[in-house]
Amino acid sequence: VEQLDALLNNVSGSVPLHERFRALFTLKSIGDDRSVDAIAKGFADESALLKHELAYVLGQMKNTHALP
After folding, report:
1. Which residue of 14, 22, 37, 61 is most buried, as measured by CB atoms within 10 A?
2. DSSP of 34-66, one letter per residue?
3. 19: domain range?
4. Global pTM?
5. Domain tally, the chain
6. How confident is the model at residue 29 (pLDDT cuts 50, 70, 90)?
């Protein structure tokens, strides 16, 4: 999960968006609380498209850890 977190939340621009999406969907497949935490960190990113996908994936996961 840590490596996927690093890929998803890379803001340096060195990781293409499609690779960040791949990390997101892999985290979704894992589905545990650590994955939810990694996905939630992504909301600090500037990309509206990424934020949309993050929200969509969290909804699909139905993990109550994502609730405030």
Report:
1. 61
2. HHHHHHHHGGGSS-HHHHHHHHHHHHHHT-GGG
3. 2-66
4. 0.93
5. 1
6. very high
The CATH number given to whatever domain includes residue 55 is 1.25.10
DSSP at 67: -
How far is residue 3's CA from residue 7's CA, in Å, rounded to a whole number? 6
Left (φ > 0), alpha (ψ -120 to 50) or beta: where does 67 sit?
Answer: beta
Res. 68 pLDDT band, cuts 50 70 90: confident
